[in-house]
Design goal:
By secondary structure, the protein is mainly alpha-helical. Helices cover 64% and strands 7% of the residues. The protein contains 9 helices and 5 strands; from the N terminus they run H-E-E-H-H-H-E-E-E-H-H-H-H-H. It has a 3-stranded mixed sheet, sandwiched between helices. Strands 1-2 form a two-stranded antiparallel ribbon. Helix 1 packs antiparallel against helix 6 and helix 5 packs across helix 8. The longest helix has 39 residues.
Amino acid sequence: MLKKLFITATCALVIAACAQSPTGRRQIMLFSDTELSKMGAQTFDSMKEETPISKDAKTNSYVNCVTNNLLAVTPDNLKAQNWEIVVFESDQVNAFALPGGKIGVYTGLLKVAENQDQLAAVVGHEIGHVIAGHSNERLSTNQALQTVLALGDAGLKAYGVKYQQELMTAFGLGAQYGVALPFSRAHESESDIIGLDLMAKAGFEPRQAVNLWQNMAAAGSGGVPEFMSTHPLPETRIKDLRAKMPEAMKTFNERKTVSALPKCSR
């Protein structure tokens, strides 16, 4: 019975996989761009109410300079958006990009990202999530899993299966570690590669992405085993970035020979 439920879950996900990511990976996309943009705007408005916004003109100018150079080389549908870029006063070492043209950068990130290129690595990564539609995919995957789990629960009740609760708990964990977490790691790895490409096209030094993740590793990764983490380990990210580096450097050098490189000062 449990095997049949897993087969049902797999079939449901395959049927729903009707889109393709920029790297060619099959995706589940159940929400419209309008729905995602609305959710992104609501989330962003809540964050602006809850988190202090930096008033430092120099910091804002620096973050906007890096971000706008990256946005200039995004696909046309993203270029056309009226992007809102906000610097939040927080020690969090993070940044994010939301559907609907919203980008947030925490001041804590500027202590780890040592230069414009390293900041571009993070912001480019976050824009990569938007380019690849990862928010839509995550929401769609969660909805599909909840539907399958509900059907499985009803099926177990109908057949009077013993240890129903234990089986459903096991099935839920299987869905989490077998589907949800690998999807999240795939999203992170995919955004690393998209971000690396954006960096190179915008004229930021791609090799600084490796330095950035080395800085992140030095700051501490929390020691969570990779198979139970939503993010790849820094060592894995660095290995994957290095594998793509020759292509990125070719793009960067082409940009370097034909135009001025970004000069974003802190």
